[in-house]
Amino acid sequence: INAEYGPIRLEATPMSDKTVRIGCSSAFWGDTSVSARELLECTDNGGIDYLVADYLAEVTMVILARKQASGGDGFVREFVSAVWKPLLKQTLARGTRIVTNAGGLDPRALKAALEAACADAGVTCPRIAAVYGDDVRGELDEWRAAGDVEPFGVLGEEEVLWTAGETLPLSSNAYVGAFPIAAALSRGAQVVVTGRCVDSALVLGPLIHEFGWRRVQHDLLSAGSLAGHIIECGAQATGGNFTDWRESCLAGPGWAHIGFPIAECCADGSFTLTKPSGSGGIVNTLTVAEQLVYEIGDPARYQLPDVTCDWRAVQLRSAGESRVLVSGARGGPPPARLKVCTTVADGFMASALLLVPGDNAAERARAVAAAVIARANRALAARRLPPLTDTQ
Fold first, then answer.
1. d(Cα 166, Cα 164) in Å, to the nearest integer?
2. Which letter does DSSP use for residue 281 in this model?
3. DSSP state letters, 351-382
4. Are 294 and 321 in contact (CB under 8 A)?
5. How far is the C-alpha of 288 from the C-alpha of 242, rounded, in Å?
6. In degrees, to the nearest 5, what angle opens at C-alpha 97 toward C-alphas 15 and 341?
7. Do the Cβ atoms of 191 and 85 come closer than 8 Å?
8. pLDDT at 11
């Protein structure tokens, strides 16, 4: 993995009493862009030190790969137009640092686009770093031939590998960790753009940089990863994906003004989750607990590039209105291998709409659908093509 300004040695620093405040403005590509301004303008406890934004999911890599293959951008262009340009002068004036994975398949191109936007605006460009190296399409065949690629299983469910030599991957990206982000920050970058790092690394990287955490300090790395995990899904942690959703929907000014999460992080790994005062949604031990177990599989062995997390003993305590103190994360050595997400083109999807009126319309429509599917399969067979694999 490469950082724009090269590797740097990270040394441990004495335990600090400072608090690092990190706000997350985006949980996916297409999430609201209003939250970035709201977090930057939040003055609670002095405002945020870092703004992080998560844009990538597995399906996002497919979309970006298709765009890139047709000559389009391999990064999230909306980060430039909806966040960077409108908030450029405000961000520079406040000195807020930004870390985002909007680089997608081409972090260096996003870096160039951000620099170009500064030039167009007539402002001095801050130091921007690109973290890249996660794209492993060129190594896949060699790794498979050497037996170094194996399916990744979660709770007994094993992924199926693509067919080597027959299906060309659209994208193949390793989920990399937080230390390259920390290295870029340590070299003075105000903005760090990455490719396919794990979502929580967007938060862990700044904490490694700020507190000098080392690779062997697994409990601290697990705690920082937990902070990242809690806030990387944006408003999910502030009641947006809460089981008791009515309580959240009616709180304060409501979901139309839902506040995005802020983690106030300490050097000992503990952090307080909150949101901008006066915003909608709720933050309590229940909303945080639900987000804690979201998509982690085994809470005793949640594998990340920098640490294997054990969150079974995590404690959640109310610390005031819309404030929850989180502590007790434990960790162990990271796995020997990295996870890789590979996307392939696997056929086509088609849909058709036909109006069937009259009596017994539903039954007639089902009969029509069965006939259409049978005729389509017969037409495919005549062309020596396989039948439809899934129909509804």
1. 6
2. S
3. -------STTHHHHHHHHHHHHHHHHHHHHHH
4. no
5. 9
6. 90
7. no
8. 42
pLDDT band at 181 (very low <50, low <70, confident <90, very high): very high
Tokens of 382: 């005549």
Sheet with 97-100: strands ordered across: 2-3, 128-132, 191-194, 97-100, 50-53, 19-24, 262-266, 271-274, 324-327, 315-318
Q: Mean of the per-residue pLDDT values for the chain? A: 91
Tokens of 153: 């299983």
Are 188 and 12 in contact by the 8 Å Cβ rule? The answer is no
C-alpha dist (Å) from residue 321 to 198, 252, 276, 277, 291: 31, 12, 11, 9, 18
- In angstroms, the CA 67 to CA 240 distance is 30
For the chain, list the strands marked E by DSSP: 2-3, 19-24, 50-53, 97-100, 128-132, 153-154, 157-158, 169-174, 191-194, 262-266, 271-274, 302-303, 308-310, 315-318, 324-327, 330-332, 340-344
Buried b (16+ CB within 10 A) or exposed e, 366-375: eeeeeeeeee
In the predicted structure, residue 152 carries a pLDDT above the cut 70:
yes
Tell me 167's DSSP state.
Answer: S
Please give the residue that has the higher pLDDT: either 175 or 157.
175
- Token code pair at residue 244: 């008791």
CA 151/CA 126 separation, integer angstroms = 41
Q: What is the DSSP letter of 84?
A: I
- At 162, the pLDDT band (50, 70, 90 cuts) reads low
Q: Distance from first CA to last CA of the chain, Å, rounded?
A: 44
Nearest to 266 by CA among 96, 22, 60, 12: 22
